[in-house]
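name: query_chain
kind: protein
chains: 1
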Amino acid sequence: MTTPLRNRITRLIAAFAMVSAIALPSATLGADTQLDKVRVKVAAFIADKMEKLGGSRIVYKVDADSLREAVTTDLRDDVYKILREGRIAFSGLAIHDGGVDVKIAGAKGREQLTRKLASAAEGLPTHALTVTDAGDGMLRLAPTDAASAARLSDLVEDSIAMIEQRLKDAGVKLASVQPEGTDRIRIFLPGVMEPEHVTAIFAKKVKIGFRLIDLSMSAEQAQSGTPPAGTEVLLGFKDKLPYLVAKNTTLEGGDISYAGPGFTSDTKEPIASFRFNGHGTRRFAHITAENVGKPFAIVLDDKVISAPVIREPITGGSGQIADNFALEEANSVAILLRAGSLPGRLGLVEQQVVQPATKP
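structure:
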């Protein structure tokens, strides 16, 4: 669930442009330097507003324990996929003590697994692993300390993006959302004297579901009468049209490993693209193989954001959502998809009202 650094900088610059006319850093600066400079200027501008207007200070802590659990689960699924595809005999595949244990009797099989994992991690510091030979064919795999730190940093950045998007959706235009330490996020809200109204926005986790569409009757008929058992009528995110969808989700936000904005290769139409983790890839392949020719709905917070028809089995583990989006809409959908896939919940550490130091 890694957010490209360029996207993070673009998001921060866009947010900064809404609240300040201060000149932005030159595009020739290094990515890290540019990100830091933008954040410093945003923080300085908001701090000045806080001094004049007062406001709210809120601190959240990301769920690092759930992140570790998600990382090791994904690692186990990746190992299982490599072993199955490579027809490598194994036993005892299990999560243990923050890593994954697997027993492979043949030295060739152990070497093949190690090579495949190293190849998958190439260029991705968040995927770097330590591989320990525990003897008798047992391998112990675990993320490196650097990889764990990088994953935590990415989780904080994705959480910041989600917070900014949901504040924007709630009509909060003046805010500073900044990392604090390794696993905390600080929010300053000038002029907002009731922080509990803001924290209520984040008390509910974004819900994402991939659901089959029921074709036994039209959505309009179901809306005016009684929907079939196990179904419900939901409205479209943009078109506001009714859709008759199954209540049970076939896949959920936790099955998504990455989401981001992009463009179609032919028409250059803005889209939100996404990738599934190992479990999601296998499940999506199975569902699409069984339902070729049928539509399914991608549901975000009880709104249908897309309802494509399954043309063929989708085995690659990735997809895209195109709905005549403007680029900002595609980015908003991608951010909410990432929000729905964030491990665990944000934990509220502190909320306080800051009185103005001077009258505005």
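note: Residues 1-29 have pLDDT under 50 and may be disordered.
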